[in-house]
Amino acid sequence: MVTARTLRLRDVRSYEREELSLGPTLTVIHGPNGAGKTNLLEALYFACTGRSCRTSNGREFVRFGQSTARVELDVEAGDGVHELAVGFEPGTPRHVAADGGTVERLADVPFRPLACVFLPDDLELIKGSPGTRRDHVDRLVAGLWPARAGTRAEYSRALAQRNALLSRIRSGEGGRDSVAAWDLELGRHAIALRDTRIEAVEAIRGPAAEISTDLGLPGGLEVSYRARSQAQEPEEFAAELAERLDGDLQRGFTGHGPHRDELLLQRDGRELRSYGSQGEQRLALLSLLLAEREALAESRGRPPLLLLDDVMSELDASRRELLVDRVTRAGQTVMTTTDLAHVPLEGVQDARTVAVESARVVDGQPAR
Ligand SMILES: Nc1ncnc2c1ncn2[C@@H]1O[C@H](COP(=O)(O)OP(=O)(O)O)[C@@H](O)[C@H]1O
Ligand SMILES: [Mg+2]
Fold first, then answer.
1. What's the structural domain count of the chain?
2. Contacts of 121 (CB under 8 A, 6+ apart)
3. CATH code at position 347
4. Position 312 in a domain
5. pTM score of the predicted model
6. Are 251 and 334 found together in one domain?
């Protein structure tokens, strides 16, 4: 079990210098629009993962007019309190330190909290291209089973080599028969990648259906994996590739394999990306995230820190209670809201509320 205790920020977004204490179960950050609530969630995510959950342009994370941002997180683990620090200057590699010593990879820090974040406006995962969802499944795989984190990269490497070979054949530099040896190799990685993705999807399918139904998505969220190939052996996959070689040579790249598979997010048998309302898409995204958190908690033995941005305004009163009940069953949650009255805190042990105004934490106290 790891618990995030205190977050310190320097020149992060709208914050110059600030400190935020977190409760062990639920912390509610409340304040008016623009106060800096989401910025705090983003900073927490940054401390846990070394990247922003809001932007791929790191410059935005650094306070206007400053050159570097820094976040520090005190974490309580079984063996005492540790400090994680991430310093960031756009254009240079970020600097990560654990208990004051530089570390290469945040993922290797044993007391790093895992993190799951829900940003209601970021529906890219639901609405975006299949590639976005594949990337997401591959990140889930890496989270569930860190030892398999390289499966995707291994497949991509083999695929790139085959594609390079296709180009050479097209330009007359190589013969068609040289492909066969690559196809077996690619088949091995393709099957490994597909099967591990299917396993990850299986781990979240049940919880996603249950949670989404609880939260009021009619019919529930159906998560499934659509694989192009059903091959069980590399030879079988290689044969499928061989059949398609003419087409691949015409196009100049490989058109068959898990790089074309799909993570389907459906309701009532229809894809949410095309048929879901904005509200349904948000509920689906939230349910998916909560399901992933449960799966991660099970496989890693500790629930990820859950960061929920402005989720309560979407839900009616009974569902707010359901959500609070579910997220406080295990692990630590930080949520933001403009209206504290939207968060049913009765019965939540050790809840904490934090008031934020104009990029200042003005008041942090245990809720009654
Ligand atoms: N890099 C930055 N430097 C300074 N201020 C920023 C930066 N990025 C965003 N802001 C400011 O942060 C505020 C929004 O904070 P945010 O956490 O999104 O508010 P909310 O409480 O509504 O979630 C805005 O006033 C915005 O101008
Ligand atoms: Mg916000």
1. 2
2. none
3. 3.40.50.300
4. yes
5. 0.92
6. no
Neighbours of ion ligand 2 (CB under 5 A): 38
Q: Which atom of ligand 1 is nearest to the CA of 336?
A: 23
- CA-nearest residue for atom 8, ligand 1, is 13
Residue 323 lies in a domain: yes
CB atoms within 10 A of CB 248: 20
Asked if 187 and 238 touch (Cβ cutoff 8 Å), the reply is yes
The string of pLDDT tens digits covering residues 119-151 is 988 899 999 999 999 999 999 999 999 999 999
Domain span including residue 203: 131-264
The Å distance, Cα 13 to ligand 1 centre, comes to 6
Within this chain, do residues 357 and 314 fall inside the same structural domain, yes or no? yes
Ligand 1 pocket test: pick from 9, 13, 20 the residue with the most ligand atoms within 8 Å of its Cβ: 13
Residue 44 CA to ligand 2 centre (angstroms): 14
CA dihedral 354, 360, 363, 367 (to 10 degrees): 0
Residue 330 pLDDT > 90 = no
Indicate the pLDDT class of residue 185, thresholds 50, 70 and 90: very high
The answer as to whether 244 is a domain residue is yes
Residue 1 clears pLDDT 90, i.e. is over it: no
**Residues 162, 221 within the same domain:** yes
The reply to whether 289 falls in a domain is no
On the question of pLDDT at 365 being above 80, the answer is no
- Residue pair 51/88 in contact by the 8 Å Cβ criterion: no
